[in-house]
Amino acid sequence: MATKKSKSSNKSNKTKSTKPKTANESAKKAELKAETTSAIEEIEEIEEIEEIKEEVSKPISSKKEKKSSIKSFFSRKYEPKESILTVFKTPRFYGALLGEIIGTMLIALLLFSLSLMGIANMATYSFAVIAVLIAVYAFSGSCLNPIITVGMMASRRISVIRGIMYIIAEIIGAWLGWLIFNAFHLAGGETAYDIPAISAIGEGKFWVVAFVELLGAFIISFFFARALKYKRSVFTFAAVVAGGLAIAVVIGYVISAAFLTLNNNFVFNPAVATMMQIFPQSGENFGEILGGICQALSAYAIIPMIGGIIGFYLSDIVARLSGDDE
Questions:
Q1: pTM for the full predicted model
Q2: Which CATH architecture has domain 74-322?
């Protein structure tokens, strides 16, 4: 009997001991619920604050995006490590300069030859330009024209030091082409070669010649900038550039010959133009000679380079607006 009582007492003790435990658990659960509800309320308050911040900062972020888009438009597109201290240390740079010299020399020889044969050889001109561009593209990107080089510099596709060296190489290449062509010309007993009707600048038609050069330079540079989109396919790149050159030559010929009574008075290449005796060799006084030199440089060098810059920038603007940015 004693054992039964002890067992019953133990059971009663157990039930008594479990009661305070369940009360503690319920209190803890209540505390946890209160904590979770307060935490949820705090999270909701934080979310509301963040939403308000986002709404307030929307115009500021849009302004930042606009500024960043403008900055990216004018940001440099060439290798960031390239500078005047590093560009001369790479052998590839000297190969690019040689490529510019050889390519411009071939283009100069082609232009000198076709200027004697006339516009009827446009197909020959286009195929020859495609061949030269393909041959030289791997070396320097086939600028081969100060119009293109200045446009590449202005749109920050190449560095300033590289662009300046390219222009010097292009002038040297045009000079070599002139020496070779004029040597054969003189060997045949002829006088020094001169392009037809180049004296039209001195006949009050400076702005006519300058406008034709500006328009042609714009067309050539615009096509070149768009051709860079297909630079992985060298043939497509060369075909687009040659097509732009052909269009510029045809338009220049029609405007100058048919409407302005000028005989093929355009070059579309400042490096080649400087070798075509565009500068006056005589005059009544020094001022007249200097004025003629300034007019020739403006019509055949400075204004075409401005057209090249316009062509590259317009191409970039159209690409940005259409979402076809490089």
A1: 0.73
A2: Up-down Bundle (1.20)
